[in-house]
Write a structure and sequence with these properties.
mainly alpha; 0% strand; 11 helices; 220 residues; homodimer; DNA-binding
Chain lengths: 220, 220
DNA sequence: GTCTATATCACGATAGAC
DNA sequence: GTCTATCGTGATATAGAC
């Protein structure tokens, strides 16, 4: 984080930090609606109420702004995943993350659009997006492995664990894409049902989502 | 299809039809790599070896070209789904579609990139992409309903059927996205395993993918 | 820290020759 | 059917005033 070095400086920088944040949030909206290539600095600047020059002042270039936006998304996203959720709980908490996403369509729209665009090796955000998936899948593998050690799930080989974790996150991305295209579908209910299919194959018994919601409320 | 009206005309149009096809295939590559907004007619024209003016001659506008590319994708895709596959067979055949996609990365890259971009209501391809998902999900719902009537799967309510079908296609999109970002993952094996989780919840017994492959080879 | 002004460039689309 | 030439627009990024 660039702002970390200036966060505790007094006085005149406070406006800059606030403005910086405004720019990032506008940029997330614009990149989400038109993609990275399709969104323009002009458009973002107009939303914020400044000129394009102010944007390059803060972020050097359009690419620099994109990276800042992606970092912002990761922060927002991690906030919805309490570090206390370990083992099987990690996956039972996924619908909660999805629920949070429904309240900020811009971020998920931005992420999926940029992720698809950045899948090309020559895209400026390719490295960032690749590392992001590595991290997310890696964390999932760690927690499902933990669940296996704890006896929360049936025995699985390491490669089976990777496949199952990839499937769970693939389901999440895919359902969210369908919801972007048709927002009338019940995103959380659909996701719960399909994720429940997968998790119940792991554990051998049905998932009681109501009980999960109660437990989640007790220990947030 | 526009070319349908000229496909069986003699002589001088043959070159035009062939060129038209070249343009569409190049456009699919370029739109896949840079998105619709990010890809340019100049770039496509250069790949084909003509000037941008030739492109607008054939397709009127950039948007017209995009529509032609999406139609082309649908044709290519439908070719991998034999109409003979009904009921549960429809879903058992999904990994075959995915396998075909691995052999033409450009098309799946184009589709996912444009689908994410076009999720915005103001995107020129929004209507097209929305109808496409409606059709795909609708077909899936029809076949899973048929499977229910045939007793191939456990009883399910109509709304449960919709959720399960959405989940199956979400899984497919999501896994393909992960494969675009990291092509070293075993796309088909991962998809088979996770789809198997879902289908076995429907039927109550494990999916024997080897048997599916044998049956598919017998009746293509 | 933000502005105005501008340099430089690429875009989609069109007109008209061949 | 494709070309050359060009128009008008809008993009990123920079320079220098305030």
């Amino acid at each position: 984080m660039v702002s970390a070095s200036t966060a505790n400086v007094r006085g005149p920088y406070k406006n800059g930090i606030k403005r910086r944040r405004e720019i990032i949030e506008s940029a997330a909206r614009v990149f989400g609606q038109f993609g990275y290539a399709g969104g323009s600095l002009r458009q973002i600047a107009q939303e914020v109420g400044v000129t394009p020059a102010a944007l390059t002042r803060h972020f050097d270039s359009k690419e620099g702004l994109l990276v800042a936006v992606l970092d912002y998304w990761d922060e927002e996203n991690d906030r919805t995943i309490p570090r206390s959720r370990q083992g099987l709980d990690r996956f039972l908490g996924m619908p909660t993350s999805v629920l949070h996403h429904t309240m900020d369509r811009g971020l998920i729209e931005m992420f999926l659009t940029v992720a698809a665009e950045a899948s090309n090796p020559r895209h400026p955000a390719n490295e960032h997006i690749r590392r992001r998936y590595e991290r997310v899948i890696g964390n999932g593998v760690r927690e499902l492995t933990r669940a296996r050690e704890l006896g929360q799930v049936h025995p699985m080989s390491d490669s089976e664990i990777v496949a199952e974790v990839r499937g769970a996150y693939a389901l999440m991305d895919g359902i969210q894409l369908q919801w972007l295209i048709d927002p009338t579908i019940d995103l959380v209910a659909t996701f719960k049902r399909c994720l429940g299919d997968i998790i119940s194959k792991w554990t051998g018994h049905e998932v009681d989502w109501d009980a999960v919601a109660r437990d989640g409320a007790e220990t947030p």
